[in-house]
Amino acid sequence: MRFEDVVRPGGVRRLAGEVLFERVAGPDGPAARSRIHDTPGPRWFGEDRPIRAVHGDASMFVGGLRALLLQSLHPLAMAAVAAHSGYRGDPWGRLARTSTFLATTTFATAEDAQRAVDQVRGIHQRVRGTTAEGAAYHAADPHLLAWVHVAEVDSFLRAHQRHGARPLDQVGRDGYVADAARVATALGVTDPPRTEAELAEQLESYRPELRPTPEARDAARFLLLTPPIPWPVRLPYGVLGANAVAMLPRWARDQLAVPRLPGLDSAAVRVAGHGMVRAIRWALSG
Fold first, then answer.
1. Which residues lie in coiled coils (predicted)?
2. How large is the average pLDDT for residues 29-35?
3. With 90 as the cut, is the pLDDT of residue 187 above it?
Protein backbone atom coordinates (compact mmCIF):
# COMPACT_ATOMS: atom_id res chain seq x y z
CA MET A 1 0.00 0.00 0.00
CA ARG A 2 1.35 3.44 -0.95
CA PHE A 3 1.79 6.23 1.60
CA GLU A 4 -0.92 8.34 0.00
CA ASP A 5 -3.30 5.40 0.36
CA VAL A 6 -2.49 5.06 4.05
CA VAL A 7 -3.25 8.71 4.87
CA ARG A 8 -6.61 8.61 3.11
CA PRO A 9 -9.73 7.98 5.22
CA GLY A 10 -9.70 4.32 6.23
CA GLY A 11 -6.12 3.85 5.04
CA VAL A 12 -4.69 2.83 8.41
CA ARG A 13 -7.49 0.33 8.87
CA ARG A 14 -6.88 -1.21 5.46
CA LEU A 15 -3.13 -1.38 6.05
CA ALA A 16 -3.59 -3.06 9.43
CA GLY A 17 -6.03 -5.52 7.90
CA GLU A 18 -3.73 -6.37 5.01
CA VAL A 19 -0.73 -6.97 7.27
CA LEU A 20 -2.75 -9.11 9.69
CA PHE A 21 -4.43 -11.07 6.91
CA GLU A 22 -1.11 -11.84 5.20
CA ARG A 23 0.32 -13.11 8.49
CA VAL A 24 -2.61 -15.43 9.06
CA ALA A 25 -3.37 -16.53 5.50
CA GLY A 26 0.11 -16.34 3.98
CA PRO A 27 1.26 -14.65 0.75
CA ASP A 28 -1.33 -16.58 -1.27
CA GLY A 29 -4.11 -15.46 1.04
CA PRO A 30 -5.77 -12.88 -1.26
CA ALA A 31 -5.99 -15.38 -4.13
CA ALA A 32 -7.33 -18.07 -1.82
CA ARG A 33 -9.89 -15.67 -0.37
CA SER A 34 -11.13 -14.78 -3.83
CA ARG A 35 -11.43 -18.43 -4.82
CA ILE A 36 -13.17 -19.39 -1.59
CA HIS A 37 -15.75 -16.63 -1.55
CA ASP A 38 -16.24 -15.70 -5.20
CA THR A 39 -16.44 -19.08 -6.94
CA PRO A 40 -20.08 -19.90 -7.66
CA GLY A 41 -21.51 -23.26 -6.66
CA PRO A 42 -23.20 -25.13 -3.80
CA ARG A 43 -21.59 -25.01 -0.35
CA TRP A 44 -21.53 -27.46 2.53
CA PHE A 45 -23.05 -24.74 4.74
CA GLY A 46 -25.64 -22.10 3.95
CA GLU A 47 -25.15 -18.48 4.89
CA ASP A 48 -27.39 -18.86 7.95
CA ARG A 49 -25.42 -21.74 9.49
CA PRO A 50 -23.69 -21.18 12.88
CA ILE A 51 -20.33 -22.47 11.65
CA ARG A 52 -20.08 -19.45 9.38
CA ALA A 53 -20.67 -17.09 12.30
CA VAL A 54 -18.06 -18.79 14.49
CA HIS A 55 -15.32 -19.38 11.92
CA GLY A 56 -15.77 -15.93 10.40
CA ASP A 57 -15.30 -14.08 13.69
CA ALA A 58 -12.10 -12.58 15.12
CA SER A 59 -12.61 -14.62 18.30
CA MET A 60 -10.96 -17.45 16.37
CA PHE A 61 -7.60 -15.88 17.20
CA VAL A 62 -8.16 -16.73 20.87
CA GLY A 63 -9.90 -20.03 20.15
CA GLY A 64 -7.08 -21.20 17.92
CA LEU A 65 -4.45 -20.66 20.62
CA ARG A 66 -6.59 -22.44 23.21
CA ALA A 67 -7.12 -25.36 20.83
CA LEU A 68 -3.39 -25.82 20.25
CA LEU A 69 -2.68 -25.78 23.98
CA LEU A 70 -5.46 -28.23 24.81
CA GLN A 71 -4.70 -30.59 21.91
CA SER A 72 -1.07 -30.86 23.02
CA LEU A 73 -2.08 -32.75 26.17
CA HIS A 74 -2.75 -35.96 24.25
CA PRO A 75 0.69 -37.65 24.06
CA LEU A 76 0.05 -39.28 20.69
CA ALA A 77 -1.32 -36.11 19.09
CA MET A 78 1.58 -34.05 20.46
CA ALA A 79 4.15 -36.58 19.27
CA ALA A 80 2.72 -36.39 15.75
CA VAL A 81 2.77 -32.58 15.80
CA ALA A 82 6.30 -32.41 17.18
CA ALA A 83 7.67 -34.87 14.64
CA HIS A 84 5.76 -33.95 11.51
CA SER A 85 4.07 -30.54 11.58
CA GLY A 86 7.09 -28.23 11.44
CA TYR A 87 5.37 -25.82 13.82
CA ARG A 88 8.71 -24.50 15.07
CA GLY A 89 10.50 -24.22 11.75
CA ASP A 90 7.54 -22.80 9.83
CA PRO A 91 4.85 -21.67 12.30
CA TRP A 92 3.38 -19.08 9.93
CA GLY A 93 3.14 -21.58 7.12
CA ARG A 94 1.31 -24.03 9.39
CA LEU A 95 -1.05 -21.27 10.51
CA ALA A 96 -1.76 -20.31 6.91
CA ARG A 97 -2.51 -23.90 5.94
CA THR A 98 -4.81 -24.38 8.92
CA SER A 99 -6.69 -21.12 8.40
CA THR A 100 -7.10 -21.83 4.69
CA PHE A 101 -8.48 -25.30 5.44
CA LEU A 102 -11.01 -23.89 7.91
CA ALA A 103 -12.05 -21.16 5.48
CA THR A 104 -12.34 -23.61 2.59
CA THR A 105 -14.47 -26.18 4.39
CA THR A 106 -16.67 -23.45 5.89
CA PHE A 107 -17.16 -21.01 3.02
CA ALA A 108 -15.92 -22.50 -0.27
CA THR A 109 -17.79 -24.60 -2.80
CA ALA A 110 -18.58 -28.19 -1.87
CA GLU A 111 -16.12 -29.32 -4.52
CA ASP A 112 -13.29 -27.25 -3.07
CA ALA A 113 -14.19 -28.32 0.48
CA GLN A 114 -14.02 -31.99 -0.46
CA ARG A 115 -10.74 -31.46 -2.26
CA ALA A 116 -9.27 -29.81 0.86
CA VAL A 117 -10.46 -32.70 3.02
CA ASP A 118 -8.99 -35.25 0.63
CA GLN A 119 -5.63 -33.50 0.75
CA VAL A 120 -5.58 -33.51 4.56
CA ARG A 121 -6.62 -37.17 4.69
CA GLY A 122 -3.75 -38.00 2.35
CA ILE A 123 -1.32 -36.22 4.67
CA HIS A 124 -2.76 -38.00 7.71
CA GLN A 125 -2.18 -41.37 6.08
CA ARG A 126 1.54 -40.64 5.88
CA VAL A 127 1.94 -39.29 9.43
CA ARG A 128 2.82 -42.19 11.69
CA GLY A 129 5.57 -42.99 14.15
CA THR A 130 6.41 -43.87 17.73
CA THR A 131 6.56 -41.73 20.85
CA ALA A 132 9.61 -41.56 23.11
CA GLU A 133 7.87 -44.13 25.34
CA GLY A 134 7.41 -46.53 22.43
CA ALA A 135 3.68 -45.97 21.76
CA ALA A 136 2.70 -46.06 18.11
CA TYR A 137 0.62 -43.27 16.58
CA HIS A 138 -1.06 -42.71 13.24
CA ALA A 139 -2.66 -39.37 12.38
CA ALA A 140 -5.47 -41.16 10.51
CA ASP A 141 -6.56 -43.03 13.65
CA PRO A 142 -10.26 -42.08 14.12
CA HIS A 143 -9.87 -41.94 17.90
CA LEU A 144 -6.95 -39.50 17.64
CA LEU A 145 -8.74 -37.47 14.98
CA ALA A 146 -11.75 -37.23 17.29
CA TRP A 147 -9.59 -35.79 20.10
CA VAL A 148 -8.18 -33.11 17.82
CA HIS A 149 -11.70 -32.34 16.62
CA VAL A 150 -13.41 -32.03 20.01
CA ALA A 151 -10.57 -29.95 21.48
CA GLU A 152 -10.77 -27.62 18.50
CA VAL A 153 -14.56 -27.30 18.42
CA ASP A 154 -14.76 -26.76 22.18
CA SER A 155 -12.11 -24.03 21.95
CA PHE A 156 -13.66 -22.23 18.99
CA LEU A 157 -17.11 -22.31 20.56
CA ARG A 158 -15.95 -21.11 23.98
CA ALA A 159 -13.94 -18.28 22.44
CA HIS A 160 -16.94 -17.23 20.37
CA GLN A 161 -19.21 -17.24 23.40
CA ARG A 162 -16.76 -15.06 25.32
CA HIS A 163 -15.42 -12.75 22.61
CA GLY A 164 -17.64 -13.19 19.53
CA ALA A 165 -19.59 -10.32 18.03
CA ARG A 166 -22.86 -12.21 18.45
CA PRO A 167 -22.69 -15.15 20.89
CA LEU A 168 -24.95 -18.07 20.02
CA ASP A 169 -28.01 -19.25 21.90
CA GLN A 170 -28.42 -22.94 22.78
CA VAL A 171 -29.90 -23.80 19.39
CA GLY A 172 -27.03 -22.02 17.70
CA ARG A 173 -24.39 -23.74 19.84
CA ASP A 174 -25.85 -27.15 19.10
CA GLY A 175 -26.04 -26.17 15.44
CA TYR A 176 -22.37 -25.22 15.40
CA VAL A 177 -21.32 -28.56 16.88
CA ALA A 178 -23.50 -30.34 14.31
CA ASP A 179 -22.00 -28.30 11.46
CA ALA A 180 -18.48 -29.08 12.63
CA ALA A 181 -19.40 -32.77 12.76
CA ARG A 182 -20.00 -32.61 8.99
CA VAL A 183 -16.34 -31.71 8.44
CA ALA A 184 -15.10 -34.16 11.08
CA THR A 185 -16.96 -37.06 9.45
CA ALA A 186 -15.44 -36.19 6.09
CA LEU A 187 -11.98 -36.25 7.72
CA GLY A 188 -12.53 -39.73 9.13
CA VAL A 189 -13.89 -39.11 12.64
CA THR A 190 -16.33 -41.81 13.70
CA ASP A 191 -19.56 -40.50 15.28
CA PRO A 192 -18.42 -36.98 16.25
CA PRO A 193 -20.54 -35.04 18.77
CA ARG A 194 -23.54 -33.19 17.36
CA THR A 195 -24.70 -31.18 20.36
CA GLU A 196 -22.94 -29.07 22.97
CA ALA A 197 -23.77 -31.66 25.63
CA GLU A 198 -22.29 -34.48 23.54
CA LEU A 199 -19.21 -32.34 22.94
CA ALA A 200 -18.64 -31.88 26.68
CA GLU A 201 -19.21 -35.59 27.32
CA GLN A 202 -16.78 -36.71 24.63
CA LEU A 203 -14.14 -34.21 25.72
CA GLU A 204 -14.36 -35.48 29.30
CA SER A 205 -14.02 -39.09 28.11
CA TYR A 206 -10.45 -38.34 26.96
CA ARG A 207 -9.28 -37.15 30.38
CA PRO A 208 -7.67 -40.51 31.36
CA GLU A 209 -5.51 -40.37 28.21
CA LEU A 210 -4.20 -36.84 28.72
CA ARG A 211 -0.92 -35.95 30.38
CA PRO A 212 1.76 -33.27 30.06
CA THR A 213 4.68 -34.63 28.05
CA PRO A 214 7.87 -32.58 27.76
CA GLU A 215 6.87 -31.86 24.14
CA ALA A 216 3.51 -30.45 25.28
CA ARG A 217 5.05 -28.13 27.84
CA ASP A 218 7.70 -27.08 25.35
CA ALA A 219 4.99 -26.25 22.80
CA ALA A 220 3.09 -24.22 25.41
CA ARG A 221 6.22 -22.21 26.26
CA PHE A 222 6.86 -21.64 22.56
CA LEU A 223 3.31 -20.44 21.90
CA LEU A 224 3.02 -18.25 24.98
CA LEU A 225 6.53 -17.01 25.78
CA THR A 226 8.70 -17.18 22.66
CA PRO A 227 6.41 -16.85 19.63
CA PRO A 228 8.14 -15.85 16.37
CA ILE A 229 6.61 -12.38 16.21
CA PRO A 230 8.12 -8.87 16.26
CA TRP A 231 8.49 -7.19 19.65
CA PRO A 232 5.99 -4.37 18.87
CA VAL A 233 3.14 -6.89 18.69
CA ARG A 234 4.20 -9.02 21.66
CA LEU A 235 1.83 -7.17 24.01
CA PRO A 236 -1.30 -7.61 21.82
CA TYR A 237 -0.37 -11.25 21.28
CA GLY A 238 0.14 -11.64 25.01
CA VAL A 239 -3.40 -10.42 25.62
CA LEU A 240 -4.73 -13.08 23.24
CA GLY A 241 -2.57 -15.72 24.90
CA ALA A 242 -3.69 -14.73 28.41
CA ASN A 243 -7.31 -15.09 27.38
CA ALA A 244 -6.65 -18.45 25.71
CA VAL A 245 -5.03 -19.71 28.91
CA ALA A 246 -7.82 -18.28 31.08
CA MET A 247 -10.37 -20.31 29.11
CA LEU A 248 -8.52 -23.59 29.63
CA PRO A 249 -9.84 -25.92 32.32
CA ARG A 250 -7.79 -25.55 35.48
CA TRP A 251 -6.56 -29.14 35.19
CA ALA A 252 -5.17 -28.36 31.73
CA ARG A 253 -3.39 -25.25 32.97
CA ASP A 254 -1.86 -27.23 35.81
CA GLN A 255 -0.70 -30.03 33.51
CA LEU A 256 0.89 -27.63 31.04
CA ALA A 257 2.50 -25.58 33.83
CA VAL A 258 1.65 -22.41 31.94
CA PRO A 259 2.84 -19.11 33.40
CA ARG A 260 0.73 -18.22 36.43
CA LEU A 261 0.01 -14.59 35.74
CA PRO A 262 -1.54 -12.60 38.59
CA GLY A 263 -5.27 -12.16 38.09
CA LEU A 264 -5.41 -14.52 35.12
CA ASP A 265 -9.10 -15.12 35.70
CA SER A 266 -9.86 -11.49 36.46
CA ALA A 267 -12.32 -9.29 34.64
CA ALA A 268 -9.38 -7.15 33.48
CA VAL A 269 -8.00 -10.03 31.39
CA ARG A 270 -11.39 -10.58 29.80
CA VAL A 271 -11.91 -6.88 29.11
CA ALA A 272 -8.47 -6.63 27.51
CA GLY A 273 -9.32 -9.68 25.41
CA HIS A 274 -12.59 -8.10 24.28
CA GLY A 275 -10.72 -4.98 23.25
CA MET A 276 -8.06 -6.88 21.32
CA VAL A 277 -10.59 -9.06 19.49
CA ARG A 278 -12.63 -5.98 18.60
CA ALA A 279 -9.49 -4.31 17.24
CA ILE A 280 -8.75 -7.36 15.06
CA ARG A 281 -12.36 -7.44 13.86
CA TRP A 282 -12.15 -3.73 13.03
CA ALA A 283 -8.94 -4.17 11.05
CA LEU A 284 -10.11 -7.20 9.07
CA SER A 285 -13.45 -5.65 8.16
CA GLY A 286 -11.88 -2.61 6.55
1. none
2. 91
3. yes
Distance CA 99, CA 16 (A): 18
Q: How many domains does the chain have?
A: 1
Dihedral over alpha carbons 213, 214, 219, 220 (to 10 degrees): 80
Average the pLDDT over 178-193 and give the result: 98
**Full domain range(s) for residue 134:** 3-284
DSSP lists the bridge partners of residue 228 as none
Distances (CA, A) of 84 to 88, 95, 280: 11, 14, 30
pLDDT digits (tens, 9 = 90+) for 42-73: 999 999 999 999 999 999 999 999 999 999 99
What are the C-alpha distances in Å from 131 to residues 68, 94, 138?
19, 22, 11
Q: Which of 146, 132, 143, 102 is nearest to 120 (CA)?
A: 102
Q: What is the DSSP letter of 74?
A: S
Asked whether 66 and 74 are in contact (CB, 8 A), the reply is no
What beta strand segments (E) does 94-236 contain? 128-130, 136-138
**Cα–Cα dist 258/265, whole Å:** 14
Biggest CA-to-CA distance, the chain: 60
